[in-house]
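Dear support,

I submitted the protein below through the web form. The confirmation email said the job was done, but the results page showed an empty box. After a refresh the structure appeared. I'm attaching both so you can tell me whether what I see now is the final result or a partial one.
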Amino acid sequence: MSMQPILVILAAGMGSRYGGLKQIEPIGPNGEIIMDYSLYDAYMVGFRRVVFIIKKEIEQEFDEIIGNRTKQHYSVQYAFQDIDDLPDGYKNSQERVKPWGTAHALLAARNVIDAPFCVINADDYYGREAFKIVYDFFADIAEKPAGSKPRYLMVGYELMKTLSKHGHVSRGICEINSQQKLLHIVERTKIVERDNQAFMTEDDGHTWEVIPRESTVSMNFWGFDPSLIDYLKAQFPPFLDKALIENPLKAEFLLPTSVAKLIANDTVEVVVQTSSDQWHGVTYKEDKPQVEQEIRKLIDAGVYSSPLWEA
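What the results page shows now:
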């Protein structure tokens, strides 16, 4: 097993969401997109391998716009999420157009993941601290005794550092024990910020409930070892047995749900470390100026060069 850790970027939704890769919103002063800053931050803490999980049909465009410039700094590999990539004996509903979700996306990379790996979303800005936390964690688990159960990592964020001023967001609220182990994640689909507080609704806004502002949320930033791939392979057929009957067009095999099952069965333990960085993302188009402004501040503070990669 190679021990050079891998950065795995979930980018299969890119292109379709923006109407083509060329439409991806630049947020840096020289046309940099959010993913450029993640690649740079990961490089600065020691990552040198990256696997992009994309759709096969955007490979050429992705390579031209993102892959080629990444190859100057990283060993780059691609994995392709394909809706018809199902275990033997399973068949997709003809009408289904939606991919099978984030855990299925990771299975697309099953043949290239041979080392501890960090999973991130392509279009979230996480800040350098998260990459440092996960890189150090990989050095730590390399020392773990053989035969002990796998230890994974989730980098969490303070809820208030992940909200949009322009509309509601969906967040996985984490329950963590006193040893900083993840117990479970509850998905809250409508959270808004009002008067410097976080509120959630579960009945389309008829009633609102305060969520503690310091709650830890999952932003899909994980550190795993290759054992996860075997667990996902085992979980996928039972998931499909149910999904193909109950919700064949829209059911998704999701990473947080898969991890939650492994925790519930006491198969793995997941350590949570919270990043003090501000998370950024363009959930609404009105979020973009704010993200541009924050990147500009980080450039002024010397965190990033402009253009990026140019010392």
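Response: this is the final, complete result; the empty box was a page-load delay. The chain has one domain: 6-300.
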